[in-house]
Design brief:
Layout: H1 10-24, H2 29-53, H3 56-63, H4 66-86, H5 88-91, H6 97-107, H7 114-122, H8 127-152, H9 162-182, H10 184-193, H11 195-219, H12 222-225, H13 228-255, H14 260-270, H15 275-285, H16 288-317, H17 322-333
Helix pairs in contact: 1-11, 2-9, 2-10, 2-11, 3-8, 4-8, 4-13, 4-14, 6-16, 7-8, 7-14, 7-16, 8-9, 8-14, 9-15, 11-15, 11-16, 13-14, 13-16, 15-16
């Protein structure tokens, strides 16, 4: 029997297990130093492989639809941060200060790649535009995310210099991505035959970074500083944020006259936030003792967006095919 899309996937279970492990057996001392080096190598390898997977024809096909791309970028790097900033007086009392810092960080992150494209495909949307949007969002996030976080957290001492952060993120994420893309003609065939390798690196690198981040946070007293009421409040904050963005992107796409296929791409690419990019970026942008609390909102939002978008994709997929719709309309007229 197939697992319901409303249930957590295997990777979410791995994430929860990793958080529990870090809570019970946090990395410290020499092991923590070795773990830091291992996470840096794993994340760089992850982005190298993502660059190698990116098809150049898909990039050019998607770039031609500039109005759609502009909508997705605006939703990802303008709408989300504005909502996080404007709603802060109402939502921050529901959580702790560090958790809301994580919400603001979440708002500044780029979109996902794999899941956004998968949902667009499931819903019969504009797949080439989705590939371009998601990939471009990852690259733009190298620059935009530190700058937006710097604007949102001007009074927050846990973040360093945004320009310095851009350099570090570029070195750790963007450079391997570009090198991987340039090497695509040489290694794309191997990667297609070794899909399991990509999955292990993808998930394994994130689990390593989550374990390291939560280890630091637990040692510094994370769970004693985050009450159960704050965790429940965090679910409410994530739900409000996701609901507003989905509503605004859907309304805007229809108001501006986009086709249904383009609307689907705007909704799914413009409402999702990347765990793959977010966790390594948090490790670069924030002090180790708060990184665990910073990524916790992202982990909850990640699962929530998967569940809600799965339902939306199924709803979009049930619409009639264009040819069937035209035939039905003709039959009504006769």
């Amino acid at each position: 029997m197939a697992r319901s899309r409303l249930l957590p996937d295997n990777f979410t279970i791995y994430l929860v297990t990793t958080v529990i492990l870090a809570s019970l057996l946090p990395a410290s001392g020499r092991f923590a130093q070795v773990l830091e080096v291992a996470t840096t190598v794993a994340v760089s390898l992850l982005f190298f492989l993502h660059g190698a997977k990116l098809s150049r024809p898909a990039i050019w096909a998607g770039l031609g639809h500039w109005r759609l791309q502009l909508m997705v970028v605006a939703s990802t790097f303008v709408l989300f941060p504005l909502l996080g900033w404007a709603l802060r007086p109402l939502l921050e009392p529901l959580v702790t200060r560090d958790l809301y810092t994580g919400i603001l960080f979440l708002c500044a992150l780029p979109a996902t790649v794999q899941s956004a494209i998968a949902f667009v495909s499931m819903a019969r949307g504009n797949i080439p535009a989705a590939i371009c949007s998601a990939s471009a969002s990852t690259l733009l996030g190298v620059v935009f995310t530190p700058l937006v976080v710097g604007l949102l957290l001007t009074q927050n001492a846990v973040m360093g210099d945004p320009l310095e952060a851009i350099g570090r993120i570029g070195l750790q994420l963007l450079l391997p991505f570009v090198v991987g893309h340039l090497m695509r003609p040489l290694i794309s065939g191997f990667l297609q035959r070794r899909g399991a390798v990509m999955k292990v690196v993808d998930q394994g690198s994130i689990l390593l970074v989550v374990y390291a981040a939560f280890s630091h946070a637990v040692i510094d007293g994370l769970w004693s500083q985050v009450p159960l009421t704050a965790l429940l409040g965090l679910l409410v904050v994530c739900a409000v944020l996701l609901g507003l963005v989905l509503t605004i992107t859907t309304w805007s796409a229809r108001r501006l006259g986009f086709s249904k296929e383009d609307e689907i791409t705007i909704v799914f690419c413009g409402s999702k936030k990347s765990l793959v990019s977010g966790v390594p970026m948090a490790n670069v942008l924030f002090a180790a003792n708060v990184a665990g609390a910073i990524v916790l909102p992202l982990m909850l939002f990640h699962q929530m967006q998967l569940m809600v978008c799965a339902l939306l994709a199924q709803r979009y997929a049930r619409r009639p095919e264009p040819a069937a719709s035209a035939a039905l309309e003709e039959a009504k007229q006769t």
